[in-house]
Design brief:
Elements lengths: L2 H25 L14 H8 L8 E4 L4 H8 L2 H9 L16 E2 L2 E3 L6 H14 L6 E6 L6 H12 L4 E7 L2 E2 L2 E2 L8 H6 L4 E6 L3 H18 L3 E6 L15 H4 L4 H9 L1 H22 L8
Parallel strand pairs: 1-3, 1-4, 4-5, 5-9, 8-9
Antiparallel strand pairs: 2-3, 6-7
Helix pairs in contact: 1-2, 1-3, 1-10, 1-11, 2-3, 2-8, 4-11, 5-6, 10-11
Length: about 290
């Protein structure tokens, strides 16, 4: 088993247990407000982000941002502190679950709100002749926002080297994609002459290989590209607003793929990841709540 495979698997399991811990804390009344987990979609976050330069590249994420942030920054204590309103939070208690800012990582809760900002950062980096990649994560629900098409238009005309990852989990909040999206996602992208690829996968190893190819092409050709990843979120939109048959969608659980791929190594990695998240919670629980903003 290669070290890279173990690292990818470890990151997925740590993100999964982190978010399950958050949901437990909400149920126990220890967290307030809301949160949006990426449970079931961790393979996309880890598979893509593992190919990025953590110092030079940029990520713009959305309301379902935890996996992207943790895969990029590996800052579990900072994010849990932020969500729990404790001292030492990544955004000093002002961002909560959705609005995270840490150097070259930004997430925004309003659908599509990140796209023009990310396009601007990508344009600046191009003018500076930097090889930095700006990666944007959006979901299929964002395809109803005009900012998406305005950004596609500009980055296509100006040839801005941006990587847009569309995580199509087939449902926008509780609205199935066939009820809110006419035509196809790929058809909408090709209308702006932006190159794209599409895959249906929750296999982190396959996603990792595919995105390595795409990022290499972006850096070589200095033009935007889009990757559509068809997957499933296993959790609700937020905490309890879900009416799907879980027995059907859980077949695509990336954790099951890890079990099959890692075999004997899986149990060891799983237990170590669980302990890690419990240690994170223990550390954060000792911190004081923020009293003033």
């Amino acid at each position: 088993m290669s070290d890279k495979k173990i690292d990818l698997a470890t990151n997925i399991l740590k993100i999964r247990f982190f978010e399950e811990k958050l949901l437990d804390l909400f149920s126990e009344g220890e967290l307030q407000g809301t949160t949006h987990t990426c449970i079931g979609q961790e393979a996309t976050a880890v598979g893509v982000v593992s190919n990025l330069n953590k110092q030079e590249d940029f990520i713009f994420s959305n309301h379902r941002n935890h996996g992207h942030y943790l895969a990029f920054k590996d800052d579990y204590i900072g994010l849990m502190s932020e969500i729990m309103g404790k001292e030492g939070g990544v955004s000093h208690g002002k961002g909560g679950s959705q609005h995270i800012h840490s150097e070259n990582f930004v997430s925004f809760g309003i659908q599509g709100g990140i796209l023009p900002i990310a396009g601007g950062v990508g344009w600046v980096k191009k003018l500076e002749k930097k090889k930095s990649i700006v990666t944007i994560f959006i979901g299929d629900g964002t395809l109803g926002q005009g900012a998406f098409y305005e950004t596609l238009n500009i980055i296509s005309i100006l040839k801005i080297p941006i990587f847009i990852v569309i995580e199509n989990n087939g449902i926008a909040q509780t609205n199935a994609i066939e009820n809110h999206l006419s035509g196809t996602i790929s058809g909408r992208i090709s209308a702006f002459s932006v190159e794209f690829e599409e895959m249906t996968s929750t296999n982190v190893f396959d996603i990792n290989l595919k995105t390595a190819e795409i990022i290499s092409k972006i850096k070589r050709d200095l033009i935007p590209r889009v990757l559509i990843v068809n997957n499933q979120r296993l959790g609700p939109h937020s905490k309890s607003d879900d009416y799907r048959d879980i027995s059907e969608i859980e077949k695509l659980d990336p954790i099951k793929i890890l079990e099959s791929e890692l075999k004997l190594e899986y149990e060891k990695i799983m237990e170590a990841s669980k302990r890690y998240i419990e240690d994170v919670y223990y550390e954060v629980s000792k911190r004081k709540y923020i009293k003033e903003y």
